[in-house]
Amino acid sequence: MTDILKLLEPAGENATDDIIRQIRFLLDSGDLQPGDKLPAERKLAEKFQVARSQVREAFKKLEFYNIIKTMPQSGSVISAIESTALNSLISDILKMDNCDFHSLVEARSIIEINAAKLCAIRRTEEDLKMIESAMNNYNKKIKECGSALEEDLYFHRTIAEGSKNTVLKSMMMTITPDIMVNYAKFNVCKTNFEIPISEHRLLFEYIKNNNAEAASNIMSQHLTGVLNFAKTQQIAL
């Protein structure tokens, strides 16, 4: 394997996306191959001349799309996916450059309200198992840690999958990494957790009972708070 540290340059102003672009270039050139292990986070931060948190943010986006896999004590490895497919996935991430928080949340609301409605109509028994499992994992993480952003977004992702609409699912996948970054930045999930737990349960029950209208309505209600919060941030900026 090529010593990729020698091929990297200091990251530009938008460090996270520049890190992703440089990894994409190494995949294009063949210097990085599926299965290759990436250098340690500390070494990458030094080479890119950025904080380790910015490397971590780039890795979180790449990991969400299964472009890399990170294992405790073992580091991060390029997924065993064909290089052209990896390149296409990275292109999806970089399409989201410079999207403001309100636009992301508004897009999420449009996608998820429709996904919930379709999921209630089209879901299978297997979908219900996945949605319920994701809901229970969220509840468990909340009780243990008081925060469960990734588990929350995964719950919503299972609903998008249950919609059986590949475009809605792809759109959801495209915006989710940036949603995660912005939710963490604005501390969106520091709230009364009893409300989302209750709304998740209602949403699951409406989908289970094929009540499409109620499912879309509760999803709209569920996302209203963060949409209003995003508007205030837009005004503040």
Automatic annotation (TrEMBL):
Keywords noted in UniProt: DNA-binding, Transcription, Transcription regulation
Family annotation (PANTHER family): TRANSCRIPTIONAL REGULATOR, GNTR FAMILY, UXU OPERON TRANSCRIPTIONAL REGULATOR
GO molecular function: DNA binding; DNA-binding transcription factor activity
Membrane found in the keyword field: no
Stored Pfam families: FCD, GntR
InterPro entries: GntR_C (IPR011711), TF_FadR/GntR_C (IPR008920), Tscrpt_reg_HTH_GntR (IPR000524), WH-like_DNA-bd_sf (IPR036388), WH_DNA-bd_sf (IPR036390)
Species annotation: Bacteroides eggerthii
Protein name: FadR family transcriptional regulator
Domain HTH gntR-type: 13-81
Domain of life where this protein originates: Bacteria
